[in-house]
Amino acid sequence: MLYKKGSEELERKEEEYRKDVEMNQQLKRTLKIRAMELGTVRKNLDQISLSHKKEKDLLHENSMLQEEIAMLRLELDTVKHQNQLKEKKYFEDIESVKEEHDNLLKAIKLNEEARTVFQYNGQLSILTTENKMLSSELKNVKHNKE
Fold it and tell me: What is the reported pTM?
């Protein structure tokens, strides 16, 4: 009876130890899984941290680029304004040159007209002189006939 009681006690203890061993193994597997998960989480956290740093860097770079774009737009507006002023001045210069050209054409026309008038005056003077000579000759011829 003691033997039976001892055997039962031993079996119970063996069963308890076997369950403890199983639980221990299960806990070891769980611990291993948790350690792997922790490693993955740490890796992901490092990636997130690195990603966050990259995001910060990109935001900073984006801000710098936006400032540069704003400065370039301002410079472009300035250049456009200067070009508009130059264009306006060029149009004024062109208008002035056109007026001067028109005035020169008028002066040339007046000069040609003056030259023509001068030539006509010369011809008129010659004809007047010739007319006087012929009148005088006619008078002489009339006088001689008389």
Answer: 0.47
* Cα 14 from chain centroid (whole Å): 85
Both tokens of residue 1?
Answer: 């009876």
How distant, in Å, are the alpha carbons of 64, 96, 100, 103, 106 from that of 92?
42, 6, 12, 16, 21
Residue 146 has pLDDT above 90, yes or no: no
- Report d(CA 117, CA 124) in Å as an integer: 10
Query: Distance between CA atoms of 46 and 24, rounded to whole angstroms?
Result: 32
Alpha helices in the chain (DSSP H): 2-145
Residue type, position 125, single letter: S
State yes or no: pLDDT of 111 exceeds 90: yes
| Tokens 């069963």 sit on residue | 15
Which two structure tokens, joined as six digits, stand for 133?
A: 């000579």
Q: Which residues of 91-118 are buried (b: 16+ CB within 10 A; e: fewer)?
A: eeeeeeeeeeeeeeeeeeeeeeeeeeee
